[in-house]
Specification:
Length: 232
């Protein structure tokens, strides 16, 4: 299997330059594409090893730098740096336009999009797909929660939209974080939702899948099982 990795850039309507990395399997250029979003203070580097594992499972990937971030695995968040340089706000809520723009941009590579979020981006994906079901064929949310009251949003900002989700949805987190997303999960139609609670303490966000953590194996087993169940 040959993987082609390249960085891509494009401008948003507010003239912010977004950076993303494509991980494309050369013999599967028309296959499903997983759009990957990082957690707070992070970057597309969060998925440097995860994307390659997903490639081995047959999925193309696009890992996106959102304006609410900084750095991960030595990879600086270029979208965040551009936002700071141009005096643009970098809050979680402002990053939602980046999330939606990336989904539109990703359609030039595949019409079968799977969306994957980590922490605040996981929450925003759940809300976005609840409101715009046609945007994706499935959702993976690592450590979502109601993180937006400090931005003036109600305590059920995410939960209020997820009952409209009509695609397979996988939610997981560290064991101690289950309370943060349990009500969100319960609000999703039971025929679409799948939860995984690790036997170990686990870790926050998509970093739970990093090889350096012994508990990553149980997360990968659950994640792969969900991905294999999808009918795309």
């Amino acid at each position: 299997m040959n993987v082609i990795k390249l960085s891509i850039l494009w401008y948003l309507l507010d003239n912010l330059l977004i950076t993303a990395d494509l991980y494309m399997i050369d013999e599967n250029v028309d296959g499903p594409l997983i759009v990957l979003y990082h957690q707070a203070k992070s970057s597309r580097g969060e998925y440097a090893e995860i994307a390659l594992r997903l490639n081995s499972l047959g999925f193309n990937c696009m890992s996106v730098d959102l304006r609410a971030g900084e750095m991960s695995n030595g990879v600086k968040n270029q979208t965040y740096l551009q936002a700071v340089k141009n005096n643009k706000k970098t809050s979680y809520l402002k990053a939602r336009m980046d999330i939606i723009a990336a989904l539109h941009h990703a359609r030039q590579y595949s019409q079968n999009l799977i969306v994957w979020g980590s922490s605040y981006s996981a929450s925003l994906l759940l809300k976005t797909i609840g409101e715009k079901p046609r945007y994706a064929k499935a959702i993976l949310a690592f450590s979502p929660g109601e993180y937006f009251s400090k931005f003036g949003k109600p305590n059920d900002y995410i939960k209020s939209s997820v009952h409209k989700i009509k695609v397979p949805t996988f939610i997981t987190s560290a064991r101690s974080e289950v309370k943060d997303w349990q009500e969100i999960y319960n609000a999703i139609d039971s025929k679409y939702r799948v939860a995984f609670i690790p036997k170990s303490k686990g870790h926050h966000g998509s970093s739970a899948l990093w090889d350096k953590y012994p508990s990553s194996a149980e997360y990968w087993k659950a994640t792969e099982s969900f991905l294999k169940s999808l009918k795309l």
